[in-house]
Amino acid sequence: MKKIALSSLSLAILGTAGAAHAQSSVTLYGLIDAGITYTSNQGGSHNFQETSGSVNGSRWGLRGSEDLGGGLKAIFTLENGFSITNGKLGQNSLEFGRQAFVGLSSDQYGAVTLGRQYDSVVDYLGPLALTGTGYGGTMAAHPFDNDNLDNSFRINNSVKYQSANFGGLKLGALYGFSNESGGFATNRAYSFGASYNYGPLNFAAGYLQLNNSGTSLNSSGAVTADSTFTAGTQRTYGAGLNYTFGPAVVGLVFTQTHLDNATGIGASASGTSSGLTLTGGSARFTNYEANARYNITPAWSVSGAYTFTDARLDGVSPKYNQVSLQTAYALSKRTDVYLMAVYQHVSDTGNSGITADINGLSRSSTDSQVATTIGLRHRF
Question: Where does it live in the cell (predicted)?
Fold first, then answer.
């Protein structure tokens, strides 16, 4: 009897709430990615390990909207990242480290949001590269994720504008405040980007600039503990295109990152406990990626990418050659199994101590590294 009464009361409350907020919605969503990874060399030894997020970072989130009338909505997203292997929070133990924002969205004019958000290079150029997508995986990131296409960091204290779709054209811009009185430019960020879709052709471009990211000058600024580089200035820009024909998509992506007063590559990027130390000069990474994916059947896909990275740092000019391959088979609309492999080789490193370093893994003791993962993804 008590159980029936409680259920009736709950239904009554839910019915009242539904009537009062008929134009509102909140969605719980998430993705869990777990796998077993073999690495040929991590610090001098091969390794078998259980991994989380080898293709897509494990996460759960809440997404909501309220219809305000006239095509205007209030929107929000709160998204948490975590490791499925041990349950720990990701993104340096932030509760909603992947995304946290609120704003207004107009069908006619676009959206303005405030919070912790992706920059415009990630929003517009990111979907054209394989890393950071379901077809490439986090391990397929360009060396050290130097262009942030794998979302190594987000922008705090940011206000973002994203336009509506104007006949296939979309535009966006972001500004991340330093939040420091008397130091307006100390650890701030700004970014802008655009994409254009014309039938089977997609084109995108973006630009990102960070000031004093990763330094100790302002720990409450736009990019803090999860920064890829410790540098006075970081400028990243790039462009890409892809073309769809039938079940196949082929694409090209170009990015370049310039660093001034660079003193380190963060541990989160290098996969090591200490990262890499730089001498404080300038550095540059130029990435050329060719990628393709093909749906053999609606349930079975194959994909791959080749990236050549020409770098300049600490008086040497390392050249990275990286190949990534993946095949995935969908057991249902929400669950799939996958097999992926990444090979990286670096040359022309001189006496710098730079070695092969696949994203998210401890670096090799040699100039080559291979990693393979068999895994399971479930979406809800």
Answer: Cell outer membrane
